[in-house]
Amino acid sequence: MPLEPVVLSFSAVLLLGLGFGSGPCNIACLPYLGPVFTATGDGIRSAWRILLPFSAGRLTGYALLGAFSGFLGLIVQDWIAAPWVRWVLGGATITVALSLIWRRHKRQLSCDSRHGGADPVEVSPPVSGRTEPALPSGLFLMGAGMALNPCAPLTTVILASATTGSAAAGMMLGAGFGIGAVLIPTLVFSLGVAHFGQQLKQHMSRWGNSLENASVGLLLIMGLGTAMGWIAP
């Protein structure tokens, strides 16, 4: 059955992405990114360490969807509704949670060595330096998994990409939508959620370990629930 032609310009998909990113996207991303910011508590200055790989993953996912649709001339909506998509997002979320556990373990080892093996009285500050590769890799795959979840605006972009019959044109449309979709969430999470996570950890320093454990636990639940299909992002 031939596709009905849908023509969208780069500016049109950019605006479509902005509209999507200003509303539903923030709600969908919050249960996945919110616990990461709360667990790290690094604040606004270090928010880019979380948002950069996550946003890069989303942009890559949208661009590849557009490219495949344009190259094949097909609507790949059935592909992104397949179980493997939720396995990517769920597995990436679990990877991020395990990375945060390892991050905390290394911090505790460093703290113990500074105190000569004695138990420290105060909770040590988060490690804000170089992070282990598993964390940014997990965040990148988490962003790609979020991008592969079907939604009405993305379906329109996929259809427009398929009717172009060009991988380059499809990639341009997917990337344009991705740029619009990540702009507002990046501002919201870098200025709002990151600051809130830092303040929460500072004001609840006495329960810092419990707060971090709860955040990591929530990530593990979100990852397992997404992979099993119990939670729909």
Quick structural gist:
This protein is mainly alpha-helical and 233 residues long.
What labels describe this entry?
0% strand, elongated, mainly alpha, 9 helices, 75% helix
Q: How would you explain this protein's 3D organization?
A:
- With 233 residues, the chain is mainly alpha-helical.
- It has one domain.
- Helices cover 75% and strands 0% of the residues.
- It has nine helices and no strands.
- α7 packs antiparallel against α8 (167-203).
- Residues 118-130 have low confidence and may be disordered.
Taking all residues together, what is the mean pLDDT?
A: 80
* DSSP helical segment count: 9
Q: Quickly count the domains.
A: 1
- Which class of secondary structure composition applies to the elements? mainly alpha
What is the first-to-last residue Cα distance? 31 Å
Q: Multimeric state of these chains?
A: single chain
Largest sheet: none
Q: Using the CA coordinates, give the radius of gyration.
A: 20 Å
Query: Which spans have pLDDT < 50 for at least 5 consecutive residues?
Result: 118-130
